[in-house]
Amino acid sequence: MEIASGGHSPRGRLRISAPMLFSQIAMGKLAAGFALRYPQVRLEVTTEDRAVDLIEEGYDLVIRVNPEPDASLVGRAFLRDRLVVVARPDLARPSDDAPVAAVLRGSIERAEALWETVTPTGRTRIAVKPILGLSSLVMVRDAVRMGVGAARLPLSLVSPDLKAGKLVSWGDVQGRETALWALYPTRRLLSARVSAFLGYIKEAFPQGTPDELAAYIGT
């Protein structure tokens, strides 16, 4: 497959910045597959959750989660996900207002006291008692698998465990849908390298659904 820009096949250096979670679960496989298909492109991927400056820091493309509008950037959403509250089946969801042990990403000190969820029967609130704060959502998932508490996690990250019955869902987290965007500067002519990568991620995630990402991670 060849994607041409100005009559040239993709070649040269391609610098990409991607967020931590996506890098941990999918970027290695994506980067390797892209490198095999386009051996004349020298791909460099850095992992950062901050909003890097493409022009100042010399990036050709960035992947961002729910980016703020920016007139200097253009691109598209290629994956969509949502947060769900999950726990092991042997951790009972409280039937009253008693708080449940919770695993968080980030600081326990700034934790929310309630999680608002949406279930087939309507909206509910879950009182939480944070007991563990971790810096990575992969770490949070692994802790939940151990049965230490409940957590809010992306559906794509826990979909296999839900299907296998290792975890159960207590509902979707209200207002916590996410989208991954691939963005590049508007002031630059779209290069063959960037165009090729955009085409490659579209091929990898044609529908852009959480289950599609989960399947990609698992293969």
Verbal overview:
- This protein has 219 residues and is α/β, with parallel strands linked by helices.
- It has two domains: 12-80 and 178-218, Periplasmic binding protein-like II (D-Maltodextrin-Binding Protein, domain 2); 81-177, 3-Layer(aba) Sandwich (D-Maltodextrin-Binding Protein, domain 2), CATH 3.40.190.290.
- It is built from six helices and nine strands; from the N terminus they run βαβαβββββαβαβαα.
- It has helices at 20-37, 54-57, 137-145, 155-164, 192-204, 210-218, and strands at residues 12-18, 41-47, 61-65, 73-87, 100-105, 114-119, 122-134, 151-154, 168-185.
- Strands 1, 2, 3, 4, 5, 6, 7, 8 and 9 form a nine-stranded mixed sheet that branches.
- Helix 4 packs across helix 6.
- The chain is elongated.
- The chain starts with 11 loop residues before the first strand and ends with a helix.
Describe this structure in a few short sentences.
The protein has helices at residues 20-37, 54-57, 137-145, 155-164, 192-204, 210-218; strands spanning 12-18, 41-47, 61-65, 73-87, 100-105, 114-119, 122-134, 151-154, 168-185. It is α/β, with parallel strands linked by helices and 219 residues long. Strands 1, 2, 3, 4, 5, 6, 7, 8 and 9 form a 9-stranded mixed β-sheet that branches.
